[in-house]
Amino acid sequence: MVSPDQVASMIKTGLPDAEVQVQDLTGGGDHYQVVVVSALFEGRSLVQRHQLVYRALQQEMDSEAIHALTMKTYTPQDWQALPTA
Amino acid sequence: MTQDVQQRIDSLVQQNKIMVFMKGTKLMPQCGFSNNVVQILNVLGVPFETCDVLADPEIRQGIKEYSSWPTIPQVYINGEFVGGSDILIELYQKGELQQMAEVALAS
Predict the structure, then answer these.
(1) In the β-sheet with B80-83, what is the strand arrangement from edge to edge?
(2) Does residue B48 lie in a domain region?
(3) What are the pLDDT digits (tens) for A13-33?
(4) Across the interface, which of A58, A62, A71 has its CB nearest the CB of B86?
(5) A-chain residues near B69 (CB < 8 A)
(6) Count of domains in chain B?
(7) Chain B contact for A65, CB < 8 A?
């Protein structure tokens, strides 16, 4: 089990320029939804983007401290182009 | 991962145009994310093969090393790792999954 802040800081360690939003889906600390915005995603496929985030959370994923992780990955341009709700 | 497990995964991935490593089976998915993948492929109406990792712990561990992807389900099209549940959903919403499946089945 990990806290949302821990998840955010671990992603930022792996992707130093990243802006990260973390949502605990169940309140149980092991099902997370994250939104990550980073220039490192430029030119990378969805799978490669997700692998970057998974690598930043390697231990937690292997130990199943995080059981399920859903993610949305954007480059800064994608993010600006999003229609603001 | 042992050589034998690697070979078993290789053959499954190479011999099936669309291959899904999931928890449970097509008819009885045992996990919401695995169910998402099965439903999407059913809606596309494409033939796909599945492997229940719950029934095969060696494959369950080996597949994570094989694709360096830590979660299940995992979808392979034409021998290539495509992604897990949320990537499938995103590709489906963009219409890219339909294209990928058609190209694979036609090849």
Answers:
(1) B49-52, B18-22, B74-77, B80-83
(2) yes
(3) 999 999 999 999 999 999 999
(4) A71
(5) 47, 50-51, 54
(6) 1
(7) no
Q: What 8-state DSSP symbol labels residue A81?
A: H
Distance from CA of B82 to the nearest CA of A (A): 7
Please report the pLDDT score of residue A85 as a whole number: 54
Indicate whether B32 belongs to any domain: yes
A68 and B CB contact within 8 Å: yes
Per-residue b/e over B63-101, b at no fewer than 16 CB within 10 Å? bbebbebbbbbbbbbbeebbbbbbbbbbbbeeeebeebb
Query: Is there a domain that residue B106 lies in?
Result: no
Q: What is the pLDDT of residues B63-90, one digit of tens each?
A: 999 998 999 999 999 999 999 999 999 9
> Does residue A43 lie within any of the structural domains?
yes
pLDDT above 60 (res A70): yes
Sites in chain B below the pLDDT cut of 50: none
Q: For position A48, which CATH number holds?
A: 3.30.300.90
Residue A83 pLDDT more than 90? no
